């Protein structure tokens, strides 16, 4: 049996002396008149990279999504259409504002929300559609925007997993009214915890600045007048400095992610019964996590597959489980009413895992992981 000599982790950042240097500099200097200097730099770099006007640094992507929904005035009695298969952080903020998520199926190739399922789910209470760029794959943003326009509802992008991906030439984060990025330690750009709200919309931007600062008008640094009860969602300056250093290296980081995927593709691409991340014509995938989905006919579910890798000293993650299948949504029948129980997405979520995709991956480690997968599958057939 192939056993990795050292545990191969599933995810992790690329941190150089530059990150340490800027974090230390911020700890020394990001005070008094300079307190927002690193946040402002990080925000400008993100907005420019994504290709939108505004970026607002926040403590995490969950906060960014919460702020977007609140700024759009979504609340009790409203519904937001979301994919059934995603990390729960995409959907939990819908409940924070008192609205009801409506879970719908995903596409079999990109694993993103199915525009036909979205169309079928639109009703009188629908206020927004939230697309998630899963594992770096891009949603069919054109189809989603058409639906949103036709029905007069908002479109929101959860691009937490897709920094650097493109759809028809435009970068992830530039679709819909606003988008959310995450800088959790496992993400493409990592600051430990952290997030960014990006938008092209001036009014939405102003509204977000007020909402994330306890309802103080943007620019009210002296009067401390609260116009409403709101939230406290600001990013720490040292965290922002880490983000600046990461964004200085963004092209290298994305190139590394794409190289990791290529190493796996070369070793696993021809293997029967497996599917890797898609990169359809007209899109570019920054491959946050290399993901392999097994043909259900192989009879190996994701948790058994993970256990096999674990025996070989290799860490993996399960494909996100359908939210409709989770205890967390047990008392939300309205959320689950439009999921198709035998949809292909349900099978994908049962038979998929993320392979090690952290920045400490090397071609030698890809050899070990790919060899392990071949060995596991050979035992099955
Ligand atoms: C990581 C992630 C989030 C949440 O990011 P946090 O910064 O942890 O709040 C949201 N949506 C998706 C799809 C994610 O992968």
Q: What does this entry look like structurally?
A:
This protein is an alpha/beta fold and 381 residues long. The protein folds into two domains: 17-247, Type I PLP-dependent aspartate aminotransferase-like (Major domain) (Aspartate Aminotransferase, domain 2), CATH 3.40.640.10; 250-380, Alpha-Beta Complex (Aspartate Aminotransferase, domain 1). 37% of the residues lie in helices and 14% in strands. It contains 13 helices and 14 strands. It has a seven-stranded mixed beta sheet with strand order 1-9-8-5-4-2-3, sandwiched between helices. Strands 10-12-14-13 form a four-stranded antiparallel beta sheet. A three-stranded antiparallel beta sheet has the order 7-6-11, with no helix packed on it. The longest helix is centred in the last third of the chain and has 19 residues, at 250-268. The chain is globular. The chain starts with 16 loop residues before the first helix and ends with a helix. The structure holds pyridoxal-5'-phosphate. Residues 60-62, 86-87, 89-90, 132, 158, 160-161, 182, 184, 195 line the site of pyridoxal-5'-phosphate. Pyridoxal-5'-phosphate (PLP) binds next to helix 3.
